[in-house]
Design goal:
Length: 233
Amino acid sequence: MDKIIEARSIYFSYDGEDALEDVSFELFREEILGIIGPNGSGKSTLLKIITGILKPKSGKIYVYTDRVSYIPQKATSFKTNFPAAVEEIVSLGRLHKAIYRRLTQEDYEIIDSALEKVGMIKYKKKKIGELSGGQQQRVFIARAIANQPDLFVLDEPTTGVDITAQTQFYKLLGELNKEMHITIIIVSHDISTVANEVTKLAYLDKKLHFIGKPQDFYKKILWPIEPEELLKG
């Protein structure tokens, strides 16, 4: 498989305090990477470096595509009186590089297709603030799809969403990964949920303490002592 991200010894600090220390990893196309770790561990900082919002203090980050969609924390939280319609929100996925141009017929077809994929086409004229948290989440995924990304980056997207919506959300991500060949990075606090849905798992606490298969994380990090060693005691 081709690499889509290569990070080499990334360091980053805020006001002299290290947020990331010597972070190195590779991600290949069509993988789904889950990043977990405690609060303040640098997870959001790493996503911002991957998406180009922040530059590392030292080290190198190579992202081998310019087709990246990013959903930051709390991006899907709207007040009930927010006036924008669903279709308008999704259209921003087509205008991100040329916000003053007119939408074409092809753009509208891509927008409708994105809404179809997330099951929200019947809500396209509805105000975004009138939707539930789970529905708003799907609209923002549609906006990301409309950008036709190679890489989809999400920062704690299931915060405040009920368990049913979370299950549907991860199922949708899996479908997008398989059908559209999108590489996905997702930050989450829910170890048990995200570990079941990703192909690769990373544990970050300023340093990258683990990256690999989810089943190996459970074995090496959560239960590092082999059963036969316990029997010896």
